[in-house]
Amino acid sequence: GVLDVPSTRAVFVLDVGTRGGVVAVLNGHVDAVRCMCALPTGGLLTGGGKMDATIKVWENSHLNGQNGAEEDSDAPVITEAASQLEGLGYVFALSVLPDEKPGSQLFAVAAARYNVVKICL
Fold it and tell me: Please, is 54 exposed, middle or buried when counting C-beta atoms within 10 Å of its C-beta (0-12, 13-18, 19+)?
C-alpha cells in the first residue's frame, strides 16, 4: 500500500517492519530539511533549509517513538524537543567523523555548504 504522509517541514520516521507506518514525527525545523545523517549513538542529525539554518540533534528515543508515548498507542509521537548544534548555520551535507581509537564512542560532525566545511566536536 501507499503511505500518506503530509508535506511539511518535519521528518517522518517510518517503521517498515512489524508496526508499519509513521512511528515518530520530528518537527523542529521552520524550513525544509535539506540533509540528514545517522549518528553512531543511534540518533539523527537534520539540517534545515536557508530560512531555518539550524542543525538539530535527535536522540534515539525520538526516532523510536518512545518520547512520552503510551505503549499500546499506534499514533506517531510528535517531537519538537531536539538539541541544536550552534555556529554551523545552513548546510547541504552532514557527515560523522568517528574517533578511530578502539572502543571510543567519540565523534565529530562535518557540515558543508558550498566550498566551506565546518567541523563540530
Answer: buried
- pLDDT tens string 38-56: 998 889 999 888 888 888 8
| Contacts within 8 Å (CB) and 24+ apart, 34-39 | 34/90, 34/91, 34/92, 35/91, 35/92, 35/93, 35/94, 36/11, 36/94, 37/94, 37/95, 37/96, 37/109, 38/96, 39/96, 39/107
The pTM of this model reads: 0.77
Name the residue among 5, 11, 7 with its Cα closest to residue 25.
11
Helices (H), 33-113: 60-63
In the chain, the amino acid numbered 90 is Y
DSSP state letter for 76 = P
Cross-sheet strand order for the sheet of 22-26: 11-14, 22-26, 77-79
Q: Alpha-carbon distance 35 to 47, whole Å?
A: 5
